[in-house]
Amino acid sequence: xxxxxxxxxxxxxxxxxxxxxxxxxxxxxxxxxxxxxxxxxxxxxxxxxxxxxxxxxxxxxxxxxxxxxxxxxxxxxxxxxxxxxxxxxxxxxxxxxxxxxxxxxxxxxxxxxxxxxxxxxxxxxxxxxxxxxxxxxxxxxxxxxxxxxxxxxxxxxxxxxxxxxxxxxxxxxxxxxxxxxxxxxxxxxxxxxxxxxxxxxxxxxxxxxxxxxxxxxxxxxxxxxxxxxxxxxxxxxxxxxxxxxxxxxxxxxxxxxxxxxxxxxxxxxxxxxxxxxxxxxxxxxxxxxx
Length: 290
Fold this sequence. Notes:
- 29% of the residues lie in helices and 16% in strands.
- It has helices spanning 34-37, 55-58, 103-106, 129-158, 199-210, 226-231, 262-279, 283-289; strands spanning 2-5, 9-13, 21-25, 69-72, 161-169, 187-190, 216-218, 238-246, 251-252, 257-258.
């Protein structure tokens, strides 16, 4: 296994990649620099509420199954890697002109977020445009350059690339999914309603979770944001599927700590990761991996 680590990301790769699947976790970063914490008006617990806590650990067995795993180091509250670099919020950053309506920016969730969960403001005032550009250059750009290189390498090696974009979602986000009284999904897959991945790939991803006992929904309430939009090119055999897992299954959302089910859930998820890796493994690779 090899690895690369810097301020932006941690990349772990198997000695030999045996699958076209790439796993990535853009929102699990948890290195909160003192210089950043001095800028914010939230305490060190509140600032973590938008973090996909533990997702990088939960998907850690990807390397064992022959796939690379790219995880964020910097937190989502500092730079949101699932936004485009142009999604700058005029209410959060000096010198930005108001542009056409963008619901992500309007809600304070641009590439430099203005709020964390429940709309709580991160700053008292605005950041400079220079600082926003510096965060994008030092954190956003290296992550995406690396993710693109992983996708390109998979495509060269296997004739296709399949990105599993790993996330977690607050349990309360599922309250209005489906009719009243209906069973809520454990996992929501986002393929931008078919624009980011072929139906056959999404069906296999759904089957991997369903066979492990998880109830799976598609695109509601999360269909995928910038990453699926940017990397999902099914006509070019480049697929991107966003995976959102209900946080309450494995963690206490109030304390941001693993719950009693964490170990069992991680073990179950390891089996899912093995099946997901198999999706991108041709017959020759399957034989070599056995």
